[in-house]
Amino acid sequence: MTMTPLFLKPVFQDRIWGGTQLRDEFGYDIPSDKTGECWAISAHPNGESEVVNGPYQGKTLRELWNEQRDVFGGLDIPHFPLLTKILDANTDLSVQVHPDDTYALEHEGELGKTECWYIIDAKEGAEMIYGHHASSEEELKDMIKDGRWDDLLRRVPVQKGDFFYVPSGTIHALCEGTLVLETQQSSDTTYRVYDYDRKDDQGHARELHLRQAVEVTTVPHQDAETTPTTSEHQGTKVTTLVKDPQFFTVYRWEVTSETTFAMEAPFLLVSVLEGKGSITTNEGTWSFNKADHFVLPTGIKEYKINGMAECIVSHI
After folding, report:
1. What range(s) does the Phosphomannose isomerase type I catalytic domain occupy (predicted)?
2. Which pLDDT value is given to residue 39?
3. Residue 223 domain-assigned?
């Protein structure tokens, strides 16, 4: 049983709304000046992270999940359940909605998509679309058909350090000038509602999915209430951002000195947003830096984190 943290090589995705913040802020070698997504911890076939250290070096996270399930606690579920991304919204994302598991498995053959966002940075006056003002499905259809977007879409201000929980069925969109860490179910199913009549590089309007979007949208909109709680654990301030027993728990760690943790989940996903430090297990010590992403596998029963760093940590 490995007691080695699994450091991962991210996969980058060009997007019509992407920019250069993944390079400018995190130093990644991005493929273009329209790089919108860093799939940092991913076993999804549309973007598989690769292990870059230890006995499983060179394997993708999906291969490791399929071939060495004991590394992740031997869970009896078909697919690696979570996906961590960093998103650079250089311009507005399309207005969209994701299905729940039942709808997605029936119509798309994969999991639905409940997600959450930690705002790494945001320009002054930044906002996001979160929810809608339709009171019934008929009103939702009419407002979409008539293009009454200003009346339909609910806009909320965002700033650095904010956190939003986005259950399936929530109409949403990140808007210009936000840099976000997203924790989500491992799914790539998105139904576009509105895309500002934009054209792609070939001059084509991007596909909308209005029938599916109406079918899966929660009407009327319901805010997902989360109440973050903070505790001090030795030298680390731990903020529990969301704890949903069905999908995931997400924490923010602010590390200031050596802290010992017991592993209380089958495995942990860790993304380093600021600073640097080290992690020690019975098998050795590994350094980490801003922009690193790693998985702590089942074999690690206890570990020590040391340094000055901000991390987002999640588990099922």
Report:
1. 7-118
2. 98
3. no
101 and 161, same domain (yes or no): yes
Q: How far apart are CA 100 and CA 113, in angstroms?
A: 6
Q: Which of 192, 216, 240 is the last residue of a domain?
A: 216
Residue 119 CA, chain-centre distance (Å), reads 11
Catalytic residue among 155, 192, 198, 252: 192
List the 82-89 sheet strands across, edge first. 11-19, 35-41, 82-89, 178-185, 115-122, 163-166
191 and 250 assigned to the same domain: no
Asked whether 254 and 283 are in contact (CB, 8 A), the reply is no
Task: Give pLDDT, residue 146.
Answer: 96
Q: Torsions phi, psi of 64, nearest 5?
A: -65, -40
Tally of domains in the chain: 2
At a CB cut-off of 8 Å and minimum separation 6, what does 262 contact? 301, 302
pLDDT of residue 1: 65
Residues of the chain scoring pLDDT < 70: 1
Q: Side-chain half-sphere of 240: how many Cα atoms within 13 Å? A: 12
Question: Is 192 one of the catalytic residues?
Answer: yes
**44: domain range?**
6-216
* 171's tokens: 């109409």
Q: Which residue has the tokens 């350090």?
A: 161
Distance CA 223, CA 170 (A): 9
Per DSSP, the three-state class of 226 is coil
d(CA 31, CA 114): 28
The 10 Å Cβ neighbour count of residue 229 is 10
Tell me, what CATH number does 251's domain have? 2.60.120.10
